[in-house]
């Protein structure tokens, strides 16, 4: 495991040459148009927790939300204490997968860490990130988040977005644009980030395999350095494997997330 401590502040030209988007400061104003793809030109999510909201205790099982045919799944660990607001992880799968695929890789560690997981499917075969975390994908994520906020008492100080590969890229980008909603961003084998704006200062955790053939280890390390240079708290986790959700990294990142970013 490597903690990024050196500051690497590339120029805008360097960022664009590397396939990454520079951060612009203005953010799109919020509105009530949750779920309308046209309302997400800047990637700003509108779903929010209602202060003091205490819904009836939900069923402790894995279930689809029933929003669309290509759906999102909600996982609530059987042993989780729901008498107080609980941590939530928004999970974003890799290319060619769907919500259930990533959920099956992380649900055991999520149960051990004591977090609720909302695993969301992209609208296409993978996440559309050409102009940032915008449009239909952002709209569906927002609708799924608000559905969970309306059903489960979520701790607003512990909301993470986690992704694998293309989902890791979308998680990085969504976390940068919505750092006032997400306290933590966890990315396994991310390929890039594209952020048309920035908001807040979430904690970042990037897990990279030294034998990754899908997104090179060196490229992922450089992304971590760039995020650190932008002023974000970043932990970079190196492992000997390939393009995977590394089990040790998953356990460490969830433990740190639940603890509020403090190393166990």
Notes on the structure:
The protein is α/β, with parallel strands linked by helices. The chain has one domain: Rossmann fold. 28% of the residues lie in helices and 18% in strands. It has six helices and nine strands, in the order βαβββαβαβαββαβα. The chain has a nine-stranded mixed sheet, with helices on both faces. Helix 2 crosses helix 6. The chain starts with a strand and ends in a 6-residue tail after the last helix. The N terminus is likely disordered.
Main structural class: alpha/beta
Number of helices: 6
What's the structural domain tally? 1
Distance between the termini: 14 Å
Oligomer: single chain
Taking all Cα atoms into account, the compactness measure Rg is: 17 Å
CATH architecture: 3-Layer(aba) Sandwich
Major sheet characteristics:
9 strands, mixed
Unreliable stretches (pLDDT < 50, length at least 5) are 1-31
Mean pLDDT, all residues: 88
Q: What is the ordering of alpha helices and beta strands?
A: EHEEEHEHEHEEHEH
Helix content: 25-40%
CATH class: Alpha Beta
CATH superfamily, please? Alpha/Beta hydrolase fold, catalytic domain
């Amino acid at each position: 495991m490597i903690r990024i401590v050196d500051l690497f502040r590339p120029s805008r030209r360097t960022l664009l040459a590397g396939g990454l988007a520079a951060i612009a400061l203005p953010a799109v104003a919020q509105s009530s148009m949750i779920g309308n793809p046209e309302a997400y030109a800047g990637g700003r999510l509108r779903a929010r927790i209602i202060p003091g909201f205490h819904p009836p205790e939900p069923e402790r099982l894995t279930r689809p939300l029933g929003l669309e045919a290509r759906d999102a799944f909600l996982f609530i660990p059987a042993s989780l204490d729901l008498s107080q607001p609980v941590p939530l992880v928004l999970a974003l799968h890799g290319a060619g997968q769907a919500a259930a695929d990533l959920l099956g890789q992380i649900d055991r560690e999520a149960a051990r860490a004591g977090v609720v997981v909302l695993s969301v499917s992209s609208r296409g075969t993978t996440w559309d990130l050409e102009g940032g975390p915008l449009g239909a994908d952002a709209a569906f994520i927002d609708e799924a988040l608000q559905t969970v906020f309306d059903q489960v008492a979520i701790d607003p100080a512990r909301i993470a977005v986690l992704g694998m590969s293309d989902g890791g890229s979308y998680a990085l980008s969504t976390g940068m644009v919505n750092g006032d909603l997400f306290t933590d961003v966890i990315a396994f084998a991310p390929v890039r980030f594209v952020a048309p704006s920035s908001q807040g200062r979430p904690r970042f955790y990037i897990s990279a395999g030294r034998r990754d053939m899908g997104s090179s280890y060196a490229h992922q390390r450089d992304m971590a350095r760039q995020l650190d240079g932008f002023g974000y708290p970043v932990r970079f986790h190196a492992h000997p494997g390939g393009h995977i959700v590394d089990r040790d990294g998953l356990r460490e990142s969830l433990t740190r997330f639940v603890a509020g970013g403090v190393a166990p």
